[in-house]
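Quarterly update, task 2.4: fe (iii) ion-bound model.
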Amino acid sequence: MVTKSPLQVWPIPAFDDNYIWCIHDGVSALVVDPGDANPVLDYLESQGLTLTGILITHHHADHTGGIQNLLAYVGTDSLPVYGPASETIPGRTQALMEGDRVECVAPSIVFEVFEVPGHTLGHIAYFAPSAMPKLFCGDTLFASGCGRLFEGTPTQMSQSLAKFAALPPNTAVYCTHEYTLSNIRFALAVEPSNPDLIAWANAAQALRQSNKPTLPTSIAHELRVNPFMRSDQPEVMAAALRESGQSVLPSQAHVLAAIRAWKDRF
Ligand code: ZN
Ligand code: FE
């Protein structure tokens, strides 16, 4: 006899450092960015969960590679596969744009869709507003970091991160990679005397030493420790100026561009 539980969000580890987030109520489950079907199927079976939908943030294979095998396993054409309208997503049934809503019945959860170009041009994020808001941000925002700019511009990434910064501070942020410790090493190079960052470095280290995820993070926390969310802070701006060799960085997007380029060669 299966009984429903309160909504849970569980990290299914995949590859070296991906998390496939499973949103479930003890009976029905959604998965976000299943790059690999096998760990998802193992988890669903071990928990007795039925897959009712797949949410995709962007087209990269480590986020989409498991879709076809999950569809084959479920054996139905009716499984919704949500994904960005402007990217090619295998098996996608629902093409999403800015402002769209995704209303899931089982598990019961509603998402608002944000377009967040930068890492890829069509990248979207799923925000579930509630008393305990949740954000599934793909490879746009990481704990103390942000995604590489494979397709978009620094201005686009800066605007995408500004959308996240405007969300409720208690929004739980479910990033898709465990990059936190290396992101923190870089963040400390940008802001060596940020006391929140120093405390977070110790806490994150302890979590990883006991093999625990450092995620989810929160919007409030990222605003305190993530240099890519802090391009308006004097210490971040000064570090960006120093590393870029420019004499002036006229906008937050220029600061972000300088920080991102520094991280890419860090
Ligand atoms: Zn990616
Ligand atoms: Fe990825």
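Highlight for this quarter: DSSP finds nine helices and 14 strands in the chain.
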